[in-house]
Automatic annotation (TrEMBL):
Molecular function per GO: unfolded protein binding
One GO cellular component term: endoplasmic reticulum membrane
Record keyword Endoplasmic reticulum present: yes
Biological process terms in GO annotation: 'de novo' protein folding
Family from the record: Belongs to the ROT1 family.
Species lineage: Eukaryota, Fungi, Dikarya, Ascomycota, Pezizomycotina
Protein name according to UniProt: Protein ROT1
Coiled-coil residue windows: none
Keywords: Endoplasmic reticulum, Membrane, Signal, Transmembrane, Transmembrane helix
Function description: Required for normal levels of the cell wall 1,6-beta-glucan. Involved in a protein folding machinery chaperoning proteins acting in various physiological processes including cell wall synthesis and lysis of autophagic bodies.
PANTHER family found in the cross-reference section: PROTEIN ROT1
Signal peptide: 1-20
Length: 241
């Protein structure tokens, strides 16, 4: 009995402790925040979960959306320079969403829904195909600040990474935020990769459709896609199986 009461007290202390770590959700974060080019943006125009497809933004950039009730969504489109061969940049498109918390010490913790995140990685000089996979990465932002940008005169969000390094500045783009549904979009499926039996697919005819699902491919942890990828230099590269 004493042990049980002690255990109850201890768990009570643990709960209090856990609650004390979390601060109220910050209202100043609510909205969609985009990097300067303002063409990479969260929401259905970036990632289409029904057709499993990314739409390539006009420019590289990043975007974060936050809701008043604790949900976030993020979109990344990055060209990764290749110092060995400047003509061979790698391309990376990432999307994820989930819940976020503000800690009492001012840090933000982003906890993605692990099965929902997606990444498209393209390294044309090393691999024949772009690689489409699940993606999840919990994030800790050590701190953040919302201010009025002195030059652009619009609200600006500065996020500082876990090590204190600043992310590129983000500017208020939309409020209410532009987001996909905040619930789980892709319930967990466990299947074997379908790379071996994937069939040749159709190439998309419009450039903004980045990748089409390979016909006949089953959902899996890793998909291989046909498609086109526009490099940072603007040339169109075709990848076939
Ligand atoms: C989440 O990411 C980790 C690290 O990359 C990986 O090991 C894990 O399998 C992923 N989870 C899901 C559900 O995709
Ligand atoms: C706040 O606490 C978290 C979790 O303990 C820690 O990772 C983070 O670095 C802390 N932030 C600051 C600003 O100290
Ligand atoms: C960014 O794009 C959104 C949607 O297209 C637009 O409403 C907003 O005004 C833009 N913001 C800036 C700073 O150009």
């Amino acid at each position: 009995m004493v042990a049980r009461i002690a255990a109850l007290l201890l768990s009570g202390v643990a709960i209090l402790h856990a609650q004390a770590q979390t601060a109220p959700l910050p209202a100043d974060l609510v909205g969609t925040w985009n990097s300067k080019a303002n063409s990479t943006c969260t929401g259905p125009d970036f990632y289409d979960p029904v057709n499993e497809k990314f739409t390539e933004p006009k420019h590289t950039g990043i975007s974060y959306s936050f809701t008043a009730d604790g949900f976030f969504e993020e979109a990344y489109y990055r060209a990764v320079a290749n110092p060995q061969n400047p003509k061979c940049p790698k391309g990376m498109i990432q999307w994820q969403h989930g819940k976020f918390e503000k800690l009492t010490n001012g840090s933000l913790v982003l906890k993605p829904i692990k099965v929902d995140g997606r990444q498209l990685f393209s390294d044309p000089c090393s691999y024949k195909n772009a690689v489409y996979t699940r993606y999840n990465a919990s994030e800790l932002f050590k701190s953040y600040e919302v201010m009025i940008d002195p030059y652009h005169k619009i609200p600006r969000l500065n996020l500082y990474k876990w090590d204190g390094a600043p992310l590129m500045p983000l500017y208020a783009a939309m409020n209410p935020p532009k987001m996909l549904p905040t619930t789980t979009l892709n319930p967990l499926v466990t299947q074997t990769p379908a790379t071996k039996n994937a069939k040749r697919g159709e190439l998309p005819t419009v450039h903004e459709v980045l990748f089409k699902r390979t016909p006949g491919a089953v959902r899996a942890d890793q998909w291989w896609w046909f498609g086109i990828f526009m490099t940072a230099g603007g040339s169109v590269l075709y990848y076939f199986f």
